[in-house]
Fold these 2 entries.
Entry 1:
Amino acid sequence: MLEMTTLEPSALLDNARHLLKTVYGYDNFRPLQEDIILSILDSRDTLVLMPTGGGKSVCFQIPALLKQGVCLVVSPLIALMRDQVEALKRNGIGAAAYNSSFSQSELRDVIRQCQSGEIKLLYVSPEKLLSVVPFLKEQLTISFIAIDEAHCISSWGHDFRPEYTQLHTIREVLPGIPVIALTATADKTTRRDICEQLKMKDPQIFISSFDRPNLSLTVRSGLSLKEKVSEIDRFLTARPNEPGIIYCLSRKNTEDMAAKLKAIGYPAACYHAGLESSTRNKVQDDFLNDRLQIVCATVAFGMGIDKSNVRWVIHSNLPKNIESYYQEIGRAGRDSYKADTVLYYSYGDVVMQTQFANDSSQKELNLAKLHRMQQFAEANICRRKILLTYFGEAVIQNCGNCDVCKNPRPMIDGTRLAQMALSAVSRMNEEAGGNMLINVLRGSSNQELIQKGYQNIKTYGVGRDVPYADWQQYMLQFLHLGILEVAYDQGSVLKITPLGKEVLFGKHPLQLSELVPISFEKKSTKKTKSTASSDVSGTDTPEEKLFQALRGLRLKLAQQDGIPPYMIFSDASLRSMAEHLPTNDEDMLAISGVGEKKMELYGNDFLEAIQSFITQRTGAPKKVQKGDTYKITLDLYTQGMEIEAIAVQREMSPTTIWSHIAYLAEQGEAIDLRKYVPRADEQRIRDAASAIGNTTALKPIFDHLNGEVEYHKIRLTLSLIKMEI
């Protein structure tokens, strides 16, 4: 392999772009990716901050393929490592995950593959890396170390993990080996701490835009549980067959929400740490494989999920900080297509999260972060501006895709409402909490209220014309504006602040945001509960019908291979196929996300599905035309050129040319496919296809034969079988 340091930056980027297209199937890098790749190829310590779905993995995977040696990738979850390795293999990249379950013989086999260059990325947990790195140092040439989810190393981060804290010792064991830290969520304090903890030397720091414009942002507050469930029902009705996650504050909340949705008719499941591991694994596996569309979960769910087609995320309760909220909504819309996020919260959420923060080892920090989260939820300015500003990104324009932008909040004179509440707090001697205050203002006959004699104070019932839910929302604004505060150490009772006294005595007017109800636009008039079915009924356009058919094919192939569907092609790639209708290998390879390896594994199946769809619509299949890409290959083949030579002349991969040859033979051209497949191999392939069930997919047959027969021979033999039918 060419030593990268001998090449000019332009040549390095040419190599990187070539890999981006041939391996990943993309034409262009996203912003900052090229600069990050050059920094890593230059062996610089590098810190990368890029949002979920922004392309962090490509930033270190491509340098790993270009540099000599093996890249060690530190990842916090075994499930996450497993999925990442499998996805890499689907793209034709040599990768492995080394964990505690490995036997000595398995470890030796992985080391051998690393030494031979078959494996370019070796995934390890932080604990495993620390114990095995001296051994790896003796056995391997290590190109660099990539630390994923790097915010876990910082005690200032939202997801601090003690096992990450010793990672700095690898600098002592591997002096001179560059370290790459990657994260999607880190404020300025956390970024500085990551660099210090990892002892980075003059690090190159790249901060990509944290904007995810495809995500809509909506916040709803003050709803009862019944109202919330009813609204979620309307939300899901408008999104049939679209997978999503509902995050809940507690284990019981996840169970209750799942039960309520099931009672309505939605196939939902709950996920939390209290369940048996087998149950959790089944829920996650069903969700990944599109057998389950709705998961009600605690925040632990989703970290190890690389599912690209999550179409919505709902927070049933207020998250503990903006970092967590941003990371969790980031699990939606990773394919860059439109996705929706909704956050519900209440005064009770604030109380509960405050108690959690008070009980934590970093009380002041967690309270401050919770306050910022609360400010976001109560804001009457563009929510995306608040998010991006939090991560240090200046924004001028409103986003137009959040509830505040879509429904600008008119302001009202809230002085009288505030004085009602403040007077009641004062007359209750600042000894009551928020719920009691609202009950007093609305003239409730609550038993506890009567026992305390609050029905006798002057302000009892003065706000009975204001609905309870509206008082809850006003209460949050009072807290946000600083006229009331919660004394958490006194049982979460309300206290009047100095500013609150000025408002109470008429010395300071108060403006409040008018409460504007938000309704979810329905996408269909007929109520259809969301299911995991790939049924295409109800789809209107031919493009949508083909997309659904391709989803069904993807699910079938994924089940044959025993992998999640998104590992074959993303929804974005399928939608592009449905729009552009590729009918040959060259057109298919032009689809974003279709690299040469995936073309080899799955391209023929999807091309046949698209051709069948076209034939059904037009009544005639596409013919090989003069000037067509197949015709060009046929002309060169007829001239006596070998397959490799045709690939070089046409600047295509041999895989593509082999596919052309198979297709041309199926169309009746005079091509002897058996010339390229020895009889013994042909029979083995036929036996494997029969044993599996005459599958048209290449990968199951390849695996059945233990990788001993090349893919192009399998492709040609399947064509022979097809021509016999």
Entry 2:
Amino acid sequence: MKTSHDLWKSLLGKKIPADWGREIDIFETEIQLRKQGKLDEKLFAETRLRRGAYGQRYDNGQRHDGTKVQQLKFPSGELTKGPMTFCDAPGMQRIKIPIWGMNAEQLETMAELAEEYSDGIAHVTTRQDFQLHFIHIDDTPALMRRLAASGITTREACGNSVRNITACPYAGVCPDEAFDVSPYGRALTKFLLGHPDCQDFGRKFKPAFSGCKQHACGLTNIHDVGAIAVGKEENGQLRLGFEYVVGGGLGAVPFQAKTFEIFMAPEELLPTTQAIARVFARLGEKKNRNRARLKFLIKDLGLEKFQELVREERKILPYDPRWTSLIEDELRNEEKPLRAGGECPAGGSEEFQAWAKTNTRDQKQAGYTVVTVTLPLGDITPDQLRAMADLARKYTHETVRTTVEQNLVIRWVSKKDLPALYQELKAADLAQGGAGHIFDVVACPGTDTCKLGISSSRGLAGELRKRLSEQAFRLDQAVQNLHIKVSGCFNSCGQHHVADMGFYGISRKAGNYTMPHFQVLLGGQWENNGGSYGLPIVAIPSKNIPTVVERLTGRFAAEREKGESFQDFYRRLGKVATKTMLEDLIKIPDHDSKPEYYSDWGDPREYTIGDIGTGECAGEVVSLTEFELAAAEREYFEAQVLYEQGDVQKSGERAFRSMLTAARALVKTEFLDVPNDADSIVAEFRARLYDTQKFWDPFAGGKFGQMLFLAQEKSQDPYHAESAHHLLEEAQLFIDAAHSSYNKMAAQAAAPKAS
């Protein structure tokens, strides 16, 4: 067991903010009540989530590379096997890293916690948080107290709350920014943390800040609310404010944020966000969690009505002096350098020069640079965290921030110190180059630890990083500047929608086996704060994805026009030509001839979908169903081509038809003579599969079935560009769910019958 509660209070109580300490005490009590059966499991789940304690996939302590995690000494003994509740099994602790970043003491605390409580790895997420895995629930109060003593909270890191408020990690030092958004982001963080108006949401609420519109560092377009620094001239004076956007989000069906206000005065930032939180809490969906994000409320109300409701709410808000005082306080906190600026000495090894090219960027303050420390897959060891702490103390005033690309940045490094800093980073194995380039592949945890993971995102990302790094010397510069992002499922935690090449995990059936696949998404835009979202083009066996990347990058390098972006090149090439180029990679090889295709990246075990088992299938109905599902995918692709050609009406009609075909394929497992008209298909699907819960939906509430019903309701309305685009997203998700349902039904049919 770790150090007792009372000892920690005596050692650290004076350093822990009183309200944080009280929160942790309450949580510790709730853990005990849960163990005694005096606290409802559903209530406890939201309680722990709001404190960052999250359940994780538990696969006998095995990482994606097949190695075992160290056998940690949990209070209940060795790692437990078999079905477990959250209180029995190790979980994940998410740790909020706000806009102000981390100091040396906090880095050292993270090192200690990863070493003592976790598996020896700290992980940086795509929302600039830290996560520790294989944490036992009994250890979380002590862990939280140690974090709190160093100035870090886990409160509202998960759950139906305001999540970590993120911002461009270069804010305040970027030459392209309108102004430094850091003080405003810090003020909003403090204002909303635990705010009573933010405790009754149906789902999470994610804000973000960016100092400019053109770069991706803040990704405001993918957030519930986003504030972009802008300036405008009034009476010959420059006035600073924010372009304020709302309703963005990725997830299964992504939405681009819409402009709420072109220019918002800084003093209106906090009260307007508070008003939005109140409207969201009051009118946002509560029963159907699948539509409980702010983006759906805005879609249902319309932007103008939403604006009207928020402005009315703003008028009746009781005055709060913190609206301005918090900002004023934060504006007084200014980062300063530790060492005098200078110029980087001439020369240096080729290795150093290559690293400096990709991992440093000039600050707007002369003589200083920001150094990016590349963390492959976002992972860092305790010893590396301690090395980072030492370097932060030695070269800066401890100015370290996390990034959305799962890296760390050290700000205010004097250019004259770069060679020495590089050597110290190299000694700690932290001097890998390629930050923000194609080698710097981003991935969510996927099947390593996430319960929703379908394919190994980290395994694939690691393989892509390895292969691309080996080819670095011969990759075209335009190719090196591309972004690859991988998610283990459709939820886009790896942000695959805004990558040049995005991939998300799915499964497909092959005879008596299942095989890991990835959907290939192209056309996303990383720049302009996540300026556009890619669409799925084809599902490819996981083991063929590196070849997909090789072909796409090779063709882009060979055929692109001068100055042409990957998005423009892909649009010019077209979906038909792109899919034709990848056609041979779609084929599923026979299990006996290519058994390696039936294992996921880095995992020698035969691939399964944990929740539905390995299952086998046989019989004519299986081949008939597969045929129909293939027809649905064909219709979906045709819908994409129509969308690309600008015929959004026919694209929407064909996308709806593809959903009907997939639904009909499943219905025919029970009723071969189902009519082919939409009303009959939907009615039979609802009665035979949805109401009986035979249609397998990874989310409680029948999210994907509801997509079909809503598409039918809207099928007589004219389609426009946005509605057709959303329907394309939903159609692919429904078809993937139909495949999963078929796998489950086949597994159940093949299971031994009880005598």
